[in-house]
Amino acid sequence: MIASRRRALLLGALALSGLGSCALLGGGDPATPAAPLSVPSDSVLVPRGRLLLDRRAMGFGGLSGLHVDDDLRYTAVSDLGRWVQAQLVAGPDGVPVALKDLRSGPLRQDFPLPLPRPLMRDAEALARLPDGTWLVAFERWHRICAYPGFDRRCEPVLQSPPGLDAAPPNAGLESLTVLADGRWLAIAEGLQAGDGTLPAWIGQPGAWASLRYRPSSGYVPTDAAPLPDGGALVVERSFSLLGGGFRAMLRRLPAAQLAHPATEAVLVPQTLIGPDALPHDNWEGVSVFRHRGELWVAMQVDDNELFFQQGQLLFFSFRN
């Protein structure tokens, strides 16, 4: 989610300029189909539909971390400190057209003393371990929590990536994923070095290797998802009041860069979808799943709980 001190500026500027998505103003369906995107004909990704999310029907917005499994089970976390799960309903052509059986609740914390809500609830990234445990990365109080189930309390991951605690309050881990071989990949949104790179880590608690990540100029990573070959997808987003509001791109880290990286190695992603192809919105979630024998990608917009923005789910499949 964008920093709260910038929210008033964003609200006024984008409302005047007409940028951002229009919110749905009624109805009880949490998701409504919309036209897919148009991408260049030589793209490795094929557009496969889009869903507009109604935060009133869902009960809240601010959706950041995203996970879609091979059974089309949708899971997301909100920077309001909540989780949501639902079933994606596919049409005859396999394209998701609705969400049903929606469930949600608070992300329960395991802390003995009450703390300010913004400090506790700013969930920004979601990943899943092979045993089904959910990992949730929080900003402001930078930490990773493990949830055996969302009806359970947080089990803090005691050995977070080294140096993460130095990140600015609203620029911690927005990108956390579990790679195909079980290692974790984490990328910070802040702590940019003079060469433009950001801190990244690979490994597991107690066995982290420090890396660097090179985003596109003016962009920061906002989510990551594993690829079956050992690589990963990364969403990058930029925001500028003078430069047209939000812009985003989808990038890929090849498996070779993640296989055996040297300490402080620089990860350099490839661009799959550039900023001219994606709607100018606050893209903060990405997930990879198998569906009908193909590898699919889902992307998600965080609506910041602002009236002129709307959550979205965007779907692609990899070209065979």
Spatial order of the strands in the main sheet?
Answer: 1-2-22-21-20
CATH fold annotation: Neuraminidase
Structural class: mainly beta
The total number of structural domains is 1
* CATH A-level architecture: 6 Propeller
Order of helical and strand elements: HEEHEEEEHEEEEEEEEEEEHEEEEE
Q: Tell me the quaternary state.
A: single chain
Q: Supply the CATH class.
A: Mainly Beta
Beta-strand content estimate: over 45%
Spans of at least 5 consecutive residues with low confidence = 3-27
Radius of gyration: 18 Å
Shape: globular
What is the average per-residue confidence, as pLDDT, rounded to a whole number?
A: 89
User: How many E strands?
Assistant: 22
Tell me roughly what share of residues is in helical segments: under 10%
Summed up, the helix count is: 4
What features would you describe in this structure?
With 320 residues, the protein is mainly beta. The protein has a single domain, classed as Neuraminidase. It has 4 helices and 22 strands. It has helices at residues 7-17, 55-58, 117-121, 255-259, and strands spanning 31-34, 45-53, 63-68, 73-78, 82-90, 96-106, 123-128, 134-138, 143-147, 155-156, 173-178, 184-188, 198-204, 207-213, 220-226, 232-240, 245-253, 266-267, 270-273, 283-291, 294-301, 311-318. The protein has a 5-stranded antiparallel β-sheet. It has a 5-stranded mixed β-sheet with strand order 11-12-13-14-18, with no helix packed on it. The chain has a 4-stranded antiparallel β-sheet with strand order 3-4-5-6, with no helix packed on it. Strand 3 (63-68) and strand 4 (73-78) form a beta hairpin. The longest helix has 11 residues, at 7-17. It is globular. The model is unreliable at 3-27 (pLDDT under 50).
